[in-house]
Amino acid sequence: MSDLLSLASRGLTGASWSAWVLYFLATTQGTIVAVTLYLHRSQAHRGVQFHPVIAHLFRFWCWLTTGMVTRQWVAVHRKHHARCETVEDPHSPQVFGIGTVLWRGVDLYKRAAANKDDLATFGAGTPTDWIECHLYEPWSWLGPTLLAAVSIALFGVVGVALWALQMVWIPFWAAGVINGLGHWCGYRNFETSDTSANLVPWGLLVGGEELHNNHHAFPASAKFSQHRFEFDGGWLVICLLRWFGLAKVRRVAPALGYRAHIQEPDVETIRALRVQHGRILHDYASSVIAPILAQQRFGARSVRRLRRALANGGRWLDPSTRSELAALVHARRYLTEVCDFRDRLADMTARNRRDISPLAQDLRRWCTDAESSGIRVLVEFAERLKGCRVVEVRAERPTRPSLMQPKP
Fold first, then answer.
1. Could you tell me which residues come within 8 angstroms of residue 73 by beta carbon, excluding any fewer than 6 positions away?
2. Are the C-beta atoms of 280 and 273 separated by less than 8 Å?
3. N or C: which end of the chain has fewer CB within 10 A?
4. Is 377 helix (H, G, I), strand (E, B) or coil?
5. How far apart are CA 225 and CA 306, in angstroms?
6. Average pLDDT over residues 251-269
7. Cβ neighbours for 132, distance < 8 A, ≥ 6 positions apart
8. 161-170 confidence digits (pLDDT tens)
9. Is-cis flag, bond preceding 408, omega within 30?
10. What tens digit of pLDDT does each residue of 115-135 get?
11. For residue 207, what is the enclosing H or E element?
12. How confident is the model at residue 408 (pLDDT cuts 50, 70, 90)?
């Protein structure tokens, strides 16, 4: 009898609390890696391709530890990008409120995943093999059930608590924190058309997914980090798998470079304006709007808040606050002028025309007007803008012989 009680309380392992912690961290981080690498970067955005064995291991682990169906996850996420910050966005805090997305994000996910029309529209290209159609999708609940049995067998009563924490890990961090706080607060490297932001210091917990603004700027990039201080754990795993020939990186976000002594905007400038418009608008807010705000003798905190609001023209403010912001801007000459230039620049970056001649003419006129403004920071920005160029980052680096392709 005592042996049965001991087995029920400590499980087959009789492990100590340190083993419980290690098991929990290993399983939850394994799930984070599987979600960010397989479901997100590979299936949803095709930024990286894994060896079939690795891809299926990720798919199996997602089924075992979350019960999520690949097609459903991919469809919900793709719709988020396609309908971001609108009433059709599956989980926008601008629509549903930050409290709902943060604490009930899993309910929003389930509601969106049940939409069969969206699965057909946004779920294309996901696995349709025998095991997906006969096990992973129709028996999605079986994976977490098996995990519960394993946890209880290994750790007894403690295994129940460990399993429960595992079940809320992804819903809280992914569906809640990333989808919620990732569109509510944080810092931005790019002025995207949404409210996405980068969160710190969660990189060690969510595999690079906290770099949400970087991701929205370049969704198809397999690498999320843009600065040295940004930690992308998922990218480190991709590099390790690539070194062993088990992963092929398809796309990496380009960088923005500058050429000195460029007198007129050229083809490279136009390409940079199209590809890196989010970075250019962000740099404009930092190097032009922020200094002008500081000259207006606003406090440091007010400068940060106003810079962020003016960086996107107050797009996400409520009508009353937007009116107050407009009145504040128009009461100050230089601030009005640089905001007008910002709006003209944003209008150019929003255009997607095959014929670049009109865009080139508008950009030359913008630079000429900026240099004639007499506003030092605006003149300096116009000089840098003329020399902008896109710096491509090689997706593939020399590695060991790859297992992704047959040998010649």
1. 35, 39, 43, 44, 62, 113
2. yes
3. C
4. helix
5. 26
6. 94
7. 59, 70
8. 999 999 999 9
9. no
10. 999 999 999 999 999 999 999
11. none
12. very low
